[in-house]
Design a protein that fits this description.
Blueprint lengths: L15 E3 L8 E3 L5 H12 L4 E2 L21 H11 L4 H8 L3 H15 L4 H10 L6
Parallel strand pairs: 1-2, 2-3
Length: 134
C-alpha cells in the first residue's frame, strides 16, 4: 500500500503505517523498516503506545532522552493523572479498581522514570512534558 492510499479511521483500531505522512496513525515507520521494527511497532501499538521514527532521514529507532518524554505505560499515565488530581494512593486504587499495592508499585515506577523525588515533582514533570493534562 502506498502512502497516498492510506485511509485513517479515527474510530477504528490503531494503525501502523509504513512511510505514510502522519495523519493520526498510532504507529509510523519508514518504508524500509525491518521485520523486527515492524513487529516491535505492532506490539507497542497493541499495548497502547505511540510509535514514531525519530527522524524521517533515519531508518531506525532511537532512545528517547530523559528530558524529552519517558516511556510510561497507559496505566502509569492514569495513575499520574489521578495523583495530579490530588488523590491519595487509597483513592487512586479505588478509582482505578486496582489494589493499593499496585498503586504503590506504579508510583515508584513513575518516580524512577520521571526522575522525581516526590509525587508533586512527578506531576509537575508530567505536566511540563505534556504527558498529562489537568
Amino acid at each position: 500500500m502506498l502512502a497516498d492510499d492510506v485511509a485513517v479511521c479515527s474510530d477504528g483500531p490503531p494503525v501502523v503505517a509504513l512511510g505514510a505522512a502522519e495523519a493520526g496513525q498510532a504507529g509510523l515507520l519508514p518504508y524500509d523498516a525491518t521485520a523486527e521494527q515492524i513487529d516491535a511497532a505492532i506490539r507497542s501499538v497493541g499495548a497502547g503506545l505511540i510509535v514514531r521514527a525519530a527522524d524521517p532521514r533515519r531508518t531506525g529507532f532511537r532512545a528517547i532522552g530523559d528530558e524529552e518524554a519517558p516511556l510510561l505505560t497507559p496505566r502509569e499515565i492514569e495513575v499520574l493523572a489521578t495523583i495530579g488530581n490530588g488523590l491519595s494512593n487509597k483513592a487512586v486504587a479505588r478509582q482505578l479498581g486496582i489494589s493499593l499495592h499496585t498503586v504503590k508499585f506504579h508510583v515508584e515506577a513513575l518516580l524512577r522514570k520521571l526522575g522525581a523525588s516526590s509525587r508533586t515533582e512527578a506531576v509537575h514533570k508530567g505536566l511540563k512534558r505534556g504527558i498529562i493534562e489537568l
